[in-house]
């Protein structure tokens, strides 16, 4: 296998994705069909320079995380995703590893929820995708804060209004949910490292972890303090994708309420405050 096989495949798949299918505007003159390099790099969360080097064969050893992000951004099916891992010289994640793959079915579901704040998390609560309205509502997260457990125990927090009791309930539910995930994926190295760091950096997490509680993190009613629109109270439902261990976090407002009006306004002006993240 030559060093350009990976690059050729990436270019072929990039040309096959219509911008509108990836949630991008399709206007303007395009010299070639499909996504531009800058668009794919943005969707995958990597630099355009690194993507260029991958396509040109000057970079040949992408990490599993980069390959997973590219497969997701290119909307590859399961067989194509496995082929991309093989082209990169990597063993695809097995059933004993937490998957970061967003299936085409979930992708299509996200496209139909453009006017609803929705984000996709993996089984260890790492953010995989957030649509523009979710980002406008909750803001952007970077680095370790992309993991919800880290964010709630150690990181910078969120815009969600919390009382001391509600924050402790959230943290207890998060720790119990992680313990449930750890029982399912006992050998996943990323999960084990996350738990190790949380136990080292958060005495409360260590205490909750040692309690042995196991539970599934579910729905709640939340008030978000938005910097432009003020308080917005929404129902937050966590939907689990059977067989894939993905979690869809969906925010909705009671129809006809002031919160529904604020959410509708945010769907109009929200992109002025934030960009999409993947």
Automatic annotation (TrEMBL):
<dbReference type="InterPro" id="IPR041413">
    <property type="entry name" value="MLTR_LBD"/>
</dbReference>
<dbReference type="Pfam" id="PF17765">
    <property type="entry name" value="MLTR_LBD"/>
</dbReference>
<dbReference type="InterPro" id="IPR010982">
    <property type="entry name" value="Lambda_DNA-bd_dom_sf"/>
</dbReference>
<protein>
    <submittedName>
        <fullName>Helix-turn-helix domain-containing protein</fullName>
    </submittedName>
</protein>
<feature type="domain" description="HTH cro/C1-type">
    <location>
        <begin position="34"/>
        <end position="81"/>
    </location>
</feature>
<dbReference type="GO" id="GO:0003677">
    <property type="term" value="F:DNA binding"/>
</dbReference>
<dbReference type="Pfam" id="PF13560">
    <property type="entry name" value="HTH_31"/>
</dbReference>
<dbReference type="InterPro" id="IPR001387">
    <property type="entry name" value="Cro/C1-type_HTH"/>
</dbReference>
């Amino acid at each position: 296998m030559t060093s350009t096989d990976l690059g050729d495949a990436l270019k072929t798949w990039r040309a096959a994705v219509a911008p509108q299918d990836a949630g991008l505007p399709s206007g303007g003159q395009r010299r070639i069909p499909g996504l531009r390099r800058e668009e794919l790099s943005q969707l995958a969360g990597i630099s355009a320079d690194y993507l260029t080097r991958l396509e040109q064969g000057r970079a040949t050893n992408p990490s599993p995380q980069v390959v997973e992000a590219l497969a997701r951004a290119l909307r590859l099916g399961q067989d194509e995703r496995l082929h991309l891992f093989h082209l990169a010289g990597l063993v695809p994640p097995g059933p004993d590893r937490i998957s970061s793959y967003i299936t085409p079915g979930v992708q299509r579901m996200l496209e139909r929820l453009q006017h609803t704040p929705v984000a996709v998390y993996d089984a260890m609560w790492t953010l995989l995708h957030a649509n523009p309205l979710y980002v406008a509502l909750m803001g952007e997260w970077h680095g370790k804060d992309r993991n919800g457990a880290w964010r709630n125990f150690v990181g910078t927090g969120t815009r969600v209004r919390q009382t001391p009791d509600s924050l402790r309930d959230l943290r207890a539910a998060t720790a119990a949910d992680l313990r449930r995930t750890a029982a399912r994926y006992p050998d996943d190295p990323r999960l084990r490292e996350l738990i190790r760091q949380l136990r080292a950096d958060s005495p409360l997490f260590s205490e909750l972890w040692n309690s042995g509680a196991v539970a599934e993190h579910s729905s709640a009613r939340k008030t978000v303090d938005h910097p432009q629109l003020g308080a917005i109270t929404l129902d937050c439902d966590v939907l689990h994708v059977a067989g894939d261990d993905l979690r869809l976090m969906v925010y909705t407002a009671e129809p006809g309420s002031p919160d529904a009006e604020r959410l509708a306004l945010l769907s109009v002006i929200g992109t002025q405050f934030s960009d999409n993240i993947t």
